[in-house]
Each structure stands twice: as C-alpha cells, then as structure tokens.
Design a protein that fits this description.
By secondary structure, this protein is an alpha+beta fold. The protein has 3 domains: 164 residues, Metalloenzyme, LuxS/M16 peptidase-like (Cytochrome Bc1 Complex, Chain A, domain 1); 180 residues, 2-Layer Sandwich (Cytochrome Bc1 Complex, Chain A, domain 1), CATH 3.30.830.10; 101 residues, PH-domain like (Roll). Helix content is 36%, strand content 22%. The chain is built from 16 helices and 20 strands. Strands 1-2-6-3-5-4 form a 6-stranded mixed beta sheet, sandwiched between helices. Strands 9-10-8-11-7-12 form a 6-stranded mixed beta sheet, with helices on both faces. The chain has a 4-stranded antiparallel beta sheet with strand order 13-14-15-16. Helix 1 packs across helix 2, helix 6 runs antiparallel to helix 7 and helix 6 packs across helix 11.
Length: 491
C-alpha cells in the first residue's frame, strides 16, 4: 500500500542506519515559469532555505529544469526539524527577505543547466517551457513578493510532492503544505526541421540534442546516450585532452520521449576538434553502433547501479515522476532484456533520432556538423516574405555605417510584427508574444514564443515609438518586465 505523510507521498528505504537522509522533491522547475518570472523557483528556494540555515546538519536544495528538491542528512530529530521548517516556509514564504536574496542570487549567477543545454532547449522550444533555461527574464530584483507567493501556492503542494527517506522516520513530522489538486504543466510544441540541423553561438564547446523514445523494458535510449557520452568523453578528454567537462542533461516530454543533450566543453583553441569529436561520435554510432567494449562498460554501469541502489524504490519514484508530469507509463524494467541488448539496437535508436537532431558548435566550427549532413540554421525560425504593413527602417546614420542596419526592415502589420535582418524574415503574431522587456537604456525588447528576440525603439528605427505604443496596446501588462539592474550593470 502507498504510504503518505500529511498528504505527501512517502518512499521509505528501511535501512539499518541510525541517521536519516531525506529528499523532498516537487514536480516544478524552471520550465514551469514564464518569461516575466524567470528565476522565481530559485528565488523561492533561497527564501525557504534561509529559514533553516542554522540547523547543524548537512542541508541543500536544487532547482533544475523540471524539479525542485530539498535535501538533508543527520539525526532523525534534526532532519524532522528541517522538513517541518521547509514546508512551513513554503506555505508562507518569507518574502520580506526578497531584496536581500536578490543580491545573493545575482552574486551566484547560477544556471539551471549547462549553457549549451539551455541554448539547445531554447532552439527546440523557444522562449517558453524548457527554453526559459536560456533567458534572464527580469532578474532576481524584478520579482515581487506577490509573484513568489502565488507561485508557491500553485506548485508547492502536498499533491505535487514526493518525500524519500532512508533511515528512521523523524517523530513529529508536520508537512504543512497546501492541498487542493495537482497543477498541470504547460505543453509546448517543439520546433521541427527537415533533417538534422546545427546552430552556432559563442560558448566554447560542442553539443547535440536528441529526442529519443522513452520507457521500453530494455531502456535502450538510456544505454544509447550512455555509450554516446562515453565515446565523446574518450575522444575529447582522454585521447585529445581538449575537455574537462563532458556531461548530459535531459527533459522528459508528455508524448513518451526524452530530449537528451550531450555536451563537451572546449579549452581555448580546441573548438574545432571538440565539435568534430561530438559530431563524428554521433554519426558513427548511428551508422555502426558501439564496440563490444563500449557496450560492456554501459552494461557494467547498469549492474553496478542496481547493486548499490534500492531498485524497488527507484522504480517507484520513476513511476511517480511520470504520474506527476502526466507522462505515459513505462514498461517494467527487465534486467535480462537490458543485458541482451546488442550494438545494432543502440545504433537503430540513434539513427532514428538523427532527422530531428540539433547540433551545436561555435560559429567558427559549424563546418564540423555541416560536412556530415547537418544544415546550419539560425537560432530562431525565419522564412517567407515580409507581410504588408507600415514599414520602419533604422536611422539614416546607422544605415550609413552598418551593413546589418541597411538590410533591416521592421513591419507593423495588423496581426503582429515582422522584421527582416541578415538571417531572414522573423514573424511575431500578437498572440505569440512571450514577453516584452524595458531595457535599462530605454529600448523595448520583444520576445516571441517561437524563440525570436528583437529590439524596438525610436532610437533604433525612425518612427519606432509608434511600434512601442502598439505593443503597449496589444500585449497584456502581465507579460511586461524591466531589465534587471544587475544585468544592466554587467553590460
């Protein structure tokens, strides 16, 4: 029978240890924010952790793309004190500390995930959902206490939480979280491409995003990404000596697929070599599969994990995660089927993912992808012709000194905005606006749900103030925000 504590699902590992390890996980992360509230989960985590900071045990908290977790290890009594305090603070966030914590968050300057993963999620999903990992939003100083309280009440509920405990259950636990039903997560269509593509930016390294089927009995997609990461690490770190960080990130989708991002950083001067290694690792494994040695290492890691973790509770937590995110159920894991996986099965998984793959390299190293059949594309969608409407051009001085300015045209159309730049034509319907930022220099920056971003102002375009006026009339005030003063100071 499932166990609950104050409406929170409990997974209890009855170990012989006398201390208690606890992880309280909520099914909410950065992907559940909006552009005007980017960073709100992280801000709430800081506020809540400040209330238990003096406990003499090991405590921590993390926010990633999909989840927020609070962790503690120590005596049962102290861990119970931690959990009670966390839940009490989530029910009534100490927003009076928001200004202080804004400075701490700015100093931390943390990413929800690695910048290369964040960029590829943005290319795939635009300026919403997992794509928000890439964006700054209003910054920690732009969030309000009312926004934090509303976010906590919606997402940090007993129905949206799982408590994992190892060791004794603390006496007197009081998980005073609100109830009232599990909130629904936003669902966003992925950007589609006609074949594999690659994008360029300035982060030194290379990466690839693959959408893979999830949840078969042999977990072939997990094994496939394992051997791919292993191959990348071998070539970039142990053979080439180009990388220290080689890692992966993933986001599950409601259709039963998982977006995996595998990435390798590059030290200065090795960007080409790292891009070549990542691109060739993927295409070679998709064509030929892993070696027997590579497959054996992946299977040995699988066996080791099963030997050192409570597999029953791990399976139960995985099933709960799917339930919390409204994902289809996975087939029960079959260890014999996993051990029977052959190299050609993993090759088939990667080969099937290639048409929708998105590669990444620095702009100067994109050739390492294009020579293997990946098409270079802009970071956001472009195409078609400019619609009919009132046209605005950059000021004459800008056109005299800038080729980019000479090619730019902004159009105010009845159904939205469009701009032509050196990438092509970007179109933004009024109902496709994800947010509008007032920059510190007075510029208005428009963010489209599809990922497009462009500035509008009278300083940039002759008559541009009219476009700003129309944005103010058309776009709901809840989507407007000011640029963070911390970001403006950096610039």
């Amino acid at each position: 029978m499932p166990q609950y504590l104050d409406g929170v699902r409990l997974l209890h590992h009855k170990d012989q240890q006398t201390t208690t390890d606890a992880t309280l996980t909520f099914a909410v992360g950065a992907q559940d924010e909006t552009l005007p509230t980017v960073g709100i989960a992280h801000a709430l985590e800081h506020l809540v952790m400040s209330t238990v900071r003096r406990l003499p045990i090991t405590i921590d908290a993390t926010v990633d793309t999909t989840t927020t977790s609070f962790l503690a290890s120590g005596s049962p009594a102290r861990v119970g004190e931690f959990l009670n305090g966390i839940c009490a603070a989530l029910s009534a966030p100490p927003v009076e500390r928001l200004e202080v914590e804004a400075g701490v968050l700015a100093a931390e300057d943390g990413w929800v995930t690695h910048p290369m993963a964040a960029l590829l999620y943005n290319v795939r999903y635009g300026n919403r959902g997992a794509g928000l990992d890439w964006l700054d939003g209003p910054g920690p100083d732009g969030l309000t206490g009312d926004q934090v309280i509303a976010f906590a009440r919606r997402w940090f509920t007993a129905d949206n939480a799982v408590l994992q405990l190892t060791g004794p259950i603390p006496e007197g636990l009081k998980l005073s979280l609100p109830t009232g039903g599990r909130p629904r997560h936003g669902r966003y269509a992925a950007r589609s491409f006609d074949g594999p593509v690659a994008v360029g930016f300035g982060i030194p390294g290379a990466a690839v995003l693959l959408s893979l089927p999830d949840g078969d009995a042999a977990r072939t997609s997990v094994l496939a990404t394992d051997v791919l990461q292993q191959r990348i690490e071998e070539m970039c770190r142990h053979v080439g000596g180009h990388s220290y960080v080689v890692d992966s990130d993933s986001v599950h989708q409601p259709d039963g697929t998982t977006d995996w991002v595998l990435y390798a950083e590059a030290r200065e001067g090795t960007e080409d070599a790292v891009a070549q290694a990542v691109a060739e690792a993927l295409t070679d494994l998709a064509a030929n599969g892993p070696s027997e040695e590579e497959l054996r290492l992946a299977l040995d890691r699988f066996d080791e994990e099963r030997a050192t973790f409570d597999t029953e509770l791990s399976a139960e937590f995985a099933a709960l995660r799917r339930e919390l995110f409204d994902e289809p159920e996975a087939e029960p894991l079959d260890p014999d089927r996993v051990r029977a996986v052959r190299p050609d099965e993993l090759a088939a998984v990667l080969r099937a993912a290639l048409p929708s793959a998105i590669g990444y390299a620095t702009e100067e190293s994109l050739e390492q992808w294009t020579k293997l059949g990946f098409q270079a594309v802009p970071l956001c969608p472009v195409g078609g012709e400019l619609p009919a409407g009132q046209e605005f051009r950059p000021h004459r001085v800008a056109r005299l000194f800038s080729r980019e300015a000479r090619e730019m045209t902004l159009v105010l159309a009845p159904d939205g905005l469009a701009i032509r730049d050196n990438d092509g034509v970007h179109r933004l319907p009024w109902d496709g606006v994800a947010g509008v930022m007032r920059a510190g220099d007075g510029t208005t920056v428009v963010f489209g749900a599809d990922g497009c971003v462009f500035p509008v102002s009278g300083d940039l375009y002759r008559g541009g103030a009219k476009v700003v006026d129309e944005l103010e009339r058309r776009v709901d005030r809840s989507l407007w925000f000011k640029e963070s003063r911390f970001k403006a100071e950096e610039d």
